[in-house]
Amino acid sequence: MCCKILVRCFHVCYHLGVMNIILYAIPVFFLLIGVELLAEKLRGSNYYRVNDAITSLSAGVLSRMFDLVKNLIPFTLYILFYENLALFTLPDSVWVWIFAFVAYDFCYYWNHRFGHEVSIFWASHVVHHSSEDYNLTTALRQSSSGFLSFIFYLPLALLGIEPLLLVSVAALNLVYQFWVHTQHIPKLGVFEWVFVTPSNHRVHHAQNSLYLDRNYGGVFIVWDRMFGSFQEELDEEKPIYGVRKALKSWNPLWANIQVYSQLCKDSYHTARWRDKIKVWFGRTGWRPEDVTLNYPLVRVDLSKFKRFDPPVDTATKIYCLLQYTVTAAIGVVLMINAANMTLIDQIGVALGVIYSCVSIGWLLERKSTAIFSELFKCLLILVLASKLMLATPLTYFLIGSSVISLLLLIQIHTKTKLPKYLN
User: Fold this and answer.
1) Could you tell me which residues come within 8 angstroms of residue 276 by beta carbon, excluding any fewer than 6 positions away?
2) Which of 151, 145, 139 is nearest to 125 (CA)?
3) Which residues contact 54 (CB under 8 A, 6 or more apart)?
4) For a designed S-S bond to 317, which of 50, 256, 268, 355 qualifies (C-beta 3.0 to 4.6 A apart)?
């Protein structure tokens, strides 16, 4: 039985690699980001910053790198439930697909709601809300953890929804959510009553007291209307994006562990064993009395809200955009060719991508070690690409981009003296 379950799990994971709807949607995502940037230029709006956008995009790359490992155990358990506990055998029909799509979104609503209202789930989901901007790149700022969220979808296994069907409707649900992360689309009339739209999702990303913890639906907003979590976007209440405990970093890895770090500290410092556990499973924001007294956190005054935005010169912006393109290209190649690579090669490339994303964040934050970190990375890519000796567009791209990056690093180092960098 165990062997059968593992075979089914790897079958699903294989399809995740070669039939991944999200992977095929990536070019469309970037095309729409380009359209939104054009609208930004024509309208003279200020919805994009290079540093924040790169951090969002880097978090998306990290999420893809962790996905195969992150999903292996949950899918194994889902298949175990489906194979042994399914109450129904559903036919392969369009109505079953529709049912699965709607049922998945219902489960997503509760997963998403717990992601805001219970600390351990918020520790994972906070990544998506850590941006203080709101644009299409925010949609790609996804978590690299969230190992417990699968429990919300186990009821679908009991209903007889086949694992590959679950993967398909989950991907479609996530793809739908991309377009609602924009400020350029106004309210959409009666569409607002049934579906998640840019307007009601802007509310969801706001940290205003009126908007806090509202509008959890992925595709359908009707769940929020049914369960009392709906809030309309009001003209007189402009959304302020971000989280109450601001990230204040462009490091996508720190964005993933920031809240976990705080929960660990609170659990360690509190004296009562019951509170050590409640820190993790209590209401988001709850802290034990002794921890609150001895280790207070600064409360956010939204009337004085100012976005985290260290100055970045033009050369650094160009460099970071180029390096993100290189990093994303390597990540996409890994996702496409994972089935043909050894485990060691997969881990090596994934670690390289993670290192690159973190290093880019350091440079945007003007860390004193960032120049040297990037210099090492560019030289390493240049050497590895040259050793491949393959006449492929990717090899030429890696060599050419590394040479250009090295020249940009010289300019950045020359114009920005190291003593001015942050420690």
Assistant:
1) 267, 268, 270
2) 145
3) 250, 320, 321, 324, 360, 364
4) 50
How far apart CA 112 and CA 107 sit, in angstroms, is 9
**pLDDT, tens only, 347-389:** 898 999 999 999 999 999 999 899 999 999 999 998 888 876 6
Complete DSSP assignment for 64-97: HHHHHHHHHHHHHHHHHHHHHH-S----SSHHHH
Confidence (pTM): 0.90
The span from the CA of 337 to the CA of 374, in Å, is 26
Could you give phi then psi for residue 195, rounded to 5 degrees? -110, 155
In a 10 Å sphere around its CB, with 0-12 CB exposed, 13-18 middle and 19+ buried, how is residue 271 labelled? exposed
Phi/psi for 367 (5° steps) reads -70, 145
Backbone angles phi, psi at 104, to 5 degrees: -60, -45
Q: For tokens 């050369």, what's the residue?
A: 315
Type of residue numbered 142? Q
Question: pLDDT, tens digit, for every residue of 262-303?
Answer: 999 999 999 999 999 999 999 999 999 999 999 998 877 888
Task: Find residue 304's DSSP bridge partners.
Answer: none
Question: Are 52 and 134 in contact, with CB atoms under 8 Å apart?
Answer: no
CB 364 within 8 A of CB 56: no
Cα separation, 251 vs 256, whole angstroms? 9
| First-residue to last-residue Cα distance in the chain | 55
Amino acid at 341: M
Distance of alpha carbon 124 from alpha carbon 258, whole angstroms = 9
Which residue in this structure is represented by tokens 């400020």? Answer: 183
Task: Report the greatest alpha carbon distance in the chain.
Answer: 68
Look-up of token digits 């609170």: 266
Question: Token match 């009553």: residue?
Answer: 193
* DSSP annotation of 299: P
Confidence of residue 341 (pLDDT cuts 50, 70, 90): confident
β-strand partners of 367: 422
Token pair listed for 15? 């399809």
Name the 3-class secondary structure at 392.
coil
Write down how long the chain is.
423
